Amino acid sequence: MSDYLQSILGGLADGCVYALIALGMSVIYSISRIISLAQGGFVVLAALCAVSLQSGLGISPLATLPIMVVIFSVGMIGVAQIVIQPAAKRATPERLLLVTVGMLQAVGGLLLIGWGNLPYTMPAFTGDAPVKVAGLSLPTQYFWLAGALAVSVLGLWLLLTKTDIGLAMRATASNPGAAALQGIRVDRMRLIAFGLAGAMAALAGTTIVPITFLQFTTVTPYAVAGFIAAVVGGLGSNMGAVTGGLLLGLLQGVFGRYWNADLAQLTAIALLVAVLVIRPQGIFGTPERVRR
Description:
Blueprint lengths: L1 H31 L5 H20 L3 H28 L4 H23 L15 E3 L2 E3 L1 H23 L1 H11 L1 H6 L4 H23 L10 H15 L4 H21 L2 H18 L14
Antiparallel strand pairs: 1-2
């Protein structure tokens, strides 16, 4: 029984990462209607940058977290301004999806050039000794993963509901044309959304790398998992992103105990297909209206 619960907890830890990726995708989609598959690549890039800071410069693992959040928040705004926004003026949403796929592959190539084909990890934030609870062995990094997700959800909720910027972002998500007529800088709101997604990518990558091994080949699996979580929960729904990520991680953790890793991945595809058939808009999503 304890082994079964251990698998569930491990799956939920992965689910926290999927949820953070899906949450970043959801924020971008709700503001700009762009599905950014590159989000999974930025997670791995942030993780390996954190590893380099820790091993090359001697920075403590925990100290790399805020550094990566700042760097990737600013970096994602730059990427959006240089790549996404110019493309959005000339391309359809379908072609923009291909742009993000190209960005994902570019990140994978950058990782191969910069870090080679070896997997990387780094020490846990607060030591390697696990916490023993009711016969279960919980790595302390699990708590950091859960905390990163909780802080992201709470921070995003406070931003969207308690600040003027959040009100402007919600107006842009609802009707960008009407928001622009009210004097809201729609392009700026979209840049802020990409900055938030960059912060979540940094949180996900930096908190997961101490308990796993990451390399250039892991960008696609994380991108796919985050996309599935976002679609299952409902594209554009923050609560749906969290629910979809945790549900996907839980299913993979449970089935991964009895099947090999490749077969466990089928659960993700099966979950996606089931949701698309039964509720195409996702668990918390609403049917899309045509936006003009």
